[in-house]
Amino acid sequence: MERQNKAWTIFRYVTIAIGLFIVFFPIYSVLISAFKTQTEYYNSGLQLPHDWFNFDNFRKVFKVGRLGLGFKNIFIILVVSLAGNVLIGTMVAYALGRFDFKMKKPIMGMYLVAQVIPMITTQVATFQVIKFLGAYNEIYAPMLLYLGADVLQIVIYLQFVNNIPRDLDESAMVEGASLFKIYRSIIFPLLAPATATLIIMKTISIYNDFYTPYLYMPSRKLQVVSTAIYSFVGPNAAQINVISAGILIIFIPTLVIYLFLQRYIFAGVTNGAVK
């Protein structure tokens, strides 16, 4: 029995060690590569850099890769996309949570179906629509694609909407408030915790997205942070040390957002379920 417990303990520690290695090895590799020259990178392998104060790669990312332009473009996309996404998501949840109509269940079903369809299978049709709208290679192409509310967003909002007493709506209607005023003055403010959660999750998702900006905004002047570092990838080789420096810079805002706002993420998801 004692031998079995010892074996189980060893197995657990080995499993944890493997898990930690899988998680932290890429971070270690990126960190040490960011401070190496090109020659040092190829000659030293996974050894520590000779000079931790070698910031040439970071300067190159901003000067040649124009990472500052990438931050500017992604900031504009985030502001417009999040504003529209929250507006559409709250309105959809308000309609589905408060009113009974014939197409209520089919609409919810379509959200679920759209969620399980692999995105890659709809890209040809989506690309044709974007091109038809004249949005291809324009900054509002990803904005249009990010505006739509997904099923997770609708579910979180619905949890909060269903927990708001209908008496508030009826009292407001007695006072002569319209449905839009009820949404604006009662429903929308009470959805603030869920909105905070979804803004954080959407911000990280849009910020890290490479595929959508790369496909719909190939122009260099429209690059975002995720596509800016791709300029250091050539047809035959890539400047991994410079790319690593860019990854570290791009990683900082995501890390700060997660560390300072993670409690809102979990609180927003769970609060609506227990109210």
UniProtKB/TrEMBL annotation:
The chain crosses the membrane at residues 12-35, 74-97, 109-133, 139-161, 182-207, 240-261. InterPro entries: MetI-like (IPR000515), MetI-like_sf (IPR035906). Keywords: Cell membrane, Membrane, Transmembrane, Transmembrane helix, Transport. PROSITE patterns: ABC_TM1 (PS50928). Residues 71-261 form the ABC transmembrane type-1 domain. Belongs to the binding-protein-dependent transport system permease family. This is Carbohydrate ABC transporter permease. It comes from Cohnella hashimotonis. The lineage of its organism: Bacteria, Bacillati, Bacillota, Bacilli, Bacillales.
